[in-house]
Every structure is written in structure tokens, then in C-alpha cells.
């Protein structure tokens, strides 16, 4: 009862006031830190590429897992500095790598966040390891922090990190960005320790998502789990703290990538590839080997397209699928690797000839320069994930195109990028026939239409580069939703089991208000469907006229506190 009163007070008195902090050192935390031995070494995943671009420009500290395992793990991080950027990495013990990384992160959170409940492993032992490793990371990072650091945590591996840092006394600004989708409560609530995980978000100052739909889903989860209330739309109170949430789609280094692609065109490797690959009548796909990427559906759509084409047309076309292996210790990935290789073999066996291989399937990573050249020469970029937070390959394909003769992007409606790249041919990746239709349409698309679509997509990419994205997020992080000094402090226990204890239960008034609503989630979407940007200042006071379910609930609380 006492706790409930404190939370009512907080909500009533902490009507947001804006306070801009001075810039400090940027500390980026991600599960995997690509401490590459040479600058030319390919980076694993969009997150690594994006953060490398941001940190190379801004400088700072990049902390996380080295990607290596040893019997015991490492007790202290190893540091290396290149110019203004310092990397600090820890090894994981074999058990932690198995239970935290292969286990809870990639066999539980990953499938559930990608709507694959059928593939989720619900082991509580792995879940416990996830919290344990997060606490270990927090302990190591805490020792390295300076007073004016701004901490930016990335992705699903590290959701509870800030909660542990707070328990260690860390009062820094801490932001979190989720690179993958966040599902609504019907799906997310299947997660083991769902309540604990959800409440862990409450230790952040800003939580960013790739799309408005993900941000809306998150707020629905918070409200429906009684973990907090949303006010206004961009702010929500989660376990007694103000937290700013919203959509902030990640971008790429658009101009730099375009330059790399132009430079690649002049290399011998590019010219050789062009000769081997039908002079550019190429459909290119580039993805980590992952069941979320829709690779089996994709190669079947290519086979359907070949099936429908005349012998003459067919032999002029090649598909190039570059798919570095990923998470090979996870059983679902091993199964998928086998199935995909078999499918590729079937297609090449059926359609191929001594002088023509329809589908080139490559399992090793390539440098950004090699990829940029291949994107530039390819007539079609085929990006068809079954579910994807953003998909930066789609953006890189567009940025790499030749303005006078651009290729066509065929893009899944379930990729976050589809919310921005409206100039693509948007397809449902489950619909094999429709994807094959889109391939046929892309091949015969007139130059004018290709240019028109490409210009529209480039305008989006230029308006939101990875540097704009980082600036926007860090601006939001530096802009406090500040409580008044008369506000009571937020209770936090130092015990690592205490996360669930700090749980503000909504008052009976709020519960009644909420139960009077048909369904919070259906009312919570922004009325015009527009994204609510992170950097938008929150309203000082909630609106008096109810606009959506969660606002009503917050107002009921506020009124009851008066
Ligand atoms: O984008 C999702 C993500 O898990 C990133 O966090 C990561 O950098 C990338 O995919 C590669 O994944 P992994 O580190 O498991 O190989």
C-alpha cells in the first residue's frame, strides 16, 4: 500500500520538465563487439556495422563479449584503443555461452521476438543464466565508468543490464535500443520471466525501437502487465521511473556506402564477377543464415520464377545468395542449414546445365567493399525476411545503385525497412507465387520507373543516415524527463533478486478505468499512424480529453492522486 502511494506521487508530481545534459563519453554496450584484427575484416551483422560507423566518428568505449569462450570465461575485460575508440571485451565461459547466448538469447528471446513461438525453448535454467551474465557484464562495466559517461545498450541480449547497473549505484543516463522486433503481449508473454524482463526496461531513461508498431507493442506489454502506464504516447512510467519510448529506425552510412560501391566498380574483382554473373542479370540476397530470413521461401520463389520463364530468358539470369553461417551451435540453425543446402541443390539439379548454374550459394562472409560492388551490379535486390527488425541489406542495396541505371529492390512487408522504403516492390514472403511475380516485374521494369522508385528511397536514406539516427537517440537520452526535487526517490533494492519487488500496482481507480476499455492495444495506436519520434518532447501534463486507453488510465491515476 505504501509503495502504491509512492508511485501515485511520482506520477502526479513528475510531470516531465526538460533538462539537457552536457555531452560526456559515449559508452556503447552490445553483446558482440567486433574487435577486428584488421579494418578489412568483415563485420557480423547490421548492429556491428552501424555502431562501428557511429563510434569511429564520435569516439568512446565499446564494451561487450569478445565472441570467444574459455573454460572459466574472463574475470576482467581486455582493452584495445584505436584513436579515440576503445574496445573492452570479455570472454564467456562455455556454460554461459551455451545458456545465455545460444540458450536464452538465441533460443528463447530471438524466436519469440520474431513470432516463432513454435521454435522457442522455455528453459528456466537458460533464463537464469541470461540474468546472471547480464549481472556479470554490469559489474565489469561499472568499474570502467566515468562520471559523465552516457551509456547506450544494444539489443535483446542485454535487456536487464541497466537494472543491474542501477542496483550497483549507477546514476548515469542509460539508453537502450532494440534492433529486432518486439511483439505484442499475446506473443511476448510467452517469455519465461516475462514480468521480470519487462520491468527491467524500467531502469533505462530511453528505450528505442525500429518501428512504431514495435514501440506500440512494447507499450501494450507494459500496460497489460501492470508494469507501468503510458502518458502522452512517447513517455511511459515503468516501475516507478519515467521512461521515454518511441520509434527511431536505424539508418546506414548512406554516402559512404555509395562511395564504396562506386570505387568497387573500378576493381578487377568487380569486372571478373560481372563476366561470371551474366553481365549483371543477377538477383542478389545477402543474409545471415537464419530461419527468420525466409531463405527457403526465397529460393523456392526463384525456382518458380525460373519455371515460368522461357529457356532463353532463364539462362540469362543468376541468383547470388550470400549467407554467412550464424549461431551454428543452436540446433534450429543446424537444421535450417541442412534444409537450405538441400533446397539449393534441388534447384541447381533441376534447372542447371554444364555452362550455367542458376543459384550461387555462398556460405562465407564478405567485406563491405565486395558486397557493395555486388549490390551495384545486381539488377534485383531480394530481401524477403519472414520477420526482421529493420534489415540494413535493403538500405545498402539501394545506396549502392548507379543513379542512371538503378536496380529494383524486392522487399518483405515484414521487414522494418518496408515502413520506410516505399519505392521497393513490397511482397508477402510467404506467398511464393507473388514473390516470383515481383521478380518477373522487376526484370522488365522500365528505366524511368526504376529511377523514380530509387530516388524516392534514396531521399529516405539521405534524410536518416546512421549518424542522424545516433544523434537523434543520444539527443533524446540527454534530454531528461526530470522529477522535481520534492519527489520521493524511486525505491531500488541492491539484491539481484529484487527486480520484481519494485512493482507499482495501479490503483483500483486505474484498474477500473482500464477494465472499462475494450482493449488497450487496439486503442493505443497513434491515430494517424505516424511514428512518434524519440526526440519529441513529452507533454508537460497529460491531455484532459481521453485519446487512447493508456492515457485514460494515467489520467485516472493522476486524478486519484490530487
Ligand atoms: O541484429 C540482431 C543481431 O543479433 C545483432 O545483435 C548481432 O550483431 C547480429 O544479429 C549477429 O548476431 P550474432 O552476434 O548472434 O552472430
Helix content: 40-55%
What's the overall average pLDDT, rounded? 83
Q: Provide the gyration radius in Å.
A: 24 Å
Strand residues, percent: 15-25%
Secondary-structure class: alpha/beta
DSSP strand tally: 18
How many helices? The count is 21
Terminal Cα span = 17 Å
Largest sheet: 10 strands, mixed
Strand order of the largest sheet: 4-5-3-2-6-7-8-11-10-9
Unreliable sequence segments: 1-22, 483-531, 535-562
Bound small molecules, by name, code or SMILES, are:
6-O-phosphono-beta-D-fructofuranose
Rough shape? globular
Task: Report on this structure.
This protein has 21 helices and 18 strands. The strands form three sheets. Strands 4-5-3-2-6-7-8-11-10-9 form a ten-stranded mixed β-sheet, sandwiched between helices. Strands 14-13-12-15-16-17 form a six-stranded parallel β-sheet, with helices on both faces. It is globular and about 70 Å long. The protein has helices at residues 2-13, 45-58, 94-113, 124-144, 161-167, 185-188, 194-200, 212-224, 254-264, 268-276, 295-308, 311-314, 331-351, 368-377, 392-399, 432-444, 447-463, 466-478, 508-515, 520-524, 549-561, and strands spanning 17-20, 26-32, 60-70, 78-82, 85-93, 150-154, 173-177, 206-209, 228-231, 235-238, 241-247, 282-286, 318-322, 359-362, 380-383, 408-412, 425-427, 479-482. It is an alpha/beta fold and 562 residues long. Residues 1-22, 483-531 and 535-562 have low confidence and may be disordered.
